[in-house]
Amino acid sequence: MKLLLIIGMMCQLSVPTNNTTKDMGTNRIEFNWTKDECAETYYIRYKKLGTFTWYRTTVKNIPFTLTLPTHGAYVYQVASSNSKGISEWSDYNTIVLP
Predict the structure, then answer these.
(1) 49 and 73 Cβ atoms separated by less than 8 Å
(2) Would you give the DSSP letter of residue 40?
């Protein structure tokens, strides 16, 4: 008797690339990046420039719109996630709200 063993292809998470933002007015920013086929969710972490506290939000669908608390400059990063773990974080990007 032969036993056939089928091993599923491993899906390797990648760091989100082509990160872009679009000012939607009133502190609202639309985030977008290249979709990772292995990702189930994404994370955006951000902080106001010059502060130490990072905030993190979970994203299911992109593009994603986030309302930031106040005007000023923010730094953000994006990561891919699935049931196996989380990717590395993207490079730092800056948003400046008028």
Answers:
(1) yes
(2) S
Query: Taking a C-beta distance cutoff of 8 angstroms, is the pair 30, 67 a contact?
Result: no
Q: Distance (Å, rounded) from C-alpha 28 to C-alpha 89?
A: 22
Strand-pairing partners, residue 57, are: 44
Q: Which two tokens stand for residue 44?
A: 């955006």
Exposure letters 28-62 (e unless 16+ CB within 10 A, then b): ebebbbeebeebeebbbebebeeeeeeeeeebeee
Report pTM.
0.84
Q: Residue 7's pLDDT is what?
A: 47
What's the helix, strand, coil split of the chain in %, to 5?
0, 45, 55
